[in-house]
Specification:
290 residues; mainly alpha; 3 strands
Length: 290
């Protein structure tokens, strides 16, 4: 008897659940899923407009998966005054100074990408009333008065706005409410940044460059070298760059690296074309559904 009552109750719940999902609700749900799919496809298309194959010889391979938040923290940490000492990165000598500057350039590059979002109207961050944007424009106008040949688009001029990246501060004093509020605002800003596909693509690239600088031993001035790089564009342009260090290697090593790169290029091009074909068919399918 009890089992019969439970079955009837369950049937009633199932029936009620089905009646609650009206055709209009299902249609709205399907439309929302389709819009999310279209947005994802747009991001994928932006990511694969070009094929880039890099070949380098490294001491160790880091198998960790790319994490935007972790990568952001690592790049931001370069801005810390104690970063180089804490990491044991060499200080003395021209090579050491050049290495430190290359690390600093990574932070500057990410900061520029961040500031450009405030200058681009369709970025979702555009805000002409932001203090940094006002300061940038004013300082740029002032700089023109003293530099006749000033190039406005020069990326070095971004520094005129003093566009400091939001800090991913991990610990705060409970008594300092202002700092807590600033951290909350920073956290929201970083979340918004890491939701921007263009910013994340730049962050991923900078993270890869940092890994090359770190190499197998950060206490050494020796870094991982990209010996060969090939970039293939959708319009058919193919650009291959060779590092001059490649030609200083023994003939056997040089030949091995070039052959390995060519094999990787063939494999990458095949996968690239297959991905493009898949996305084209996916877009066609979405167009039919819409």
């Amino acid at each position: 008897m009890s089992n019969k009552i439970q079955t009837q109750d369950q049937n009633a719940i199932d029936t009620k659940s089905k009646t609650n999902h009206k055709p209009q609700d299902i249609e709205n749900l399907a439309r929302g899923l389709l819009n999310n799919l279209v947005s994802s496809v747009q991001t994928l298309i932006s990511d694969i407009t070009a094929l880039e194959v890099n070949t380098m010889v490294v001491e160790t391979i880091n198998g960790s998966k790319f994490s935007p938040w972790e990568a952001y923290q690592e790049i931001y940490s370069i801005h810390d005054p104690n970063y180089f000492e804490a990491k044991g990165i060499p200080k003395e000598g021209s090579e050491a100074q050049e290495l430190r500057q290359r690390y600093k350039n990574l932070f500057d590059q990410l900061e520029r990408e961040y500031f450009y979002l405030y200058l681009e109207q369709d970025s979702g961050f555009y805000n002409p009333e932001d203090d940094r944007v006002k300061r940038y424009r004013q300082n740029l106008e002032d700089a023109k008065k003293y530099q006749k040949n000033l190039v406005e688009s020069d990326e070095a001029n971004v520094k005129l706005g003093q566009p400091i990246l939001p800090a991913p501060t991990p610990v705060l004093d409970d008594k300092d409410k202002n700092e807590q509020e600033n951290w909350i605002e920073n956290f929201k800003e970083i979340e918004k940044l890491l939701d921007n596909s263009k910013f994340v693509r730049t962050l991923r690239k900078i993270s890869e460059l940092k890994a090359a600088l770190d190499g197998g031993n950060v206490t050494s001035t020796k870094t991982d070298i990209i010996y060969v790089q090939t970039v293939m564009q959708l319009d058919g342009d193919i650009i291959t760059r060779y590092s001059k260090e490649l030609f200083d290697l023994p003939e056997e090593a040089k030949t091995l690296i070039i052959n390995t790169h060519n094999e990787g290029l063939v494999s990458g091009e095949k996968q690239w074309h297959e991905t493009l074909s898949f996305l084209i068919n996916l877009v066609k399918g979405i167009a039919k559904l819409s």
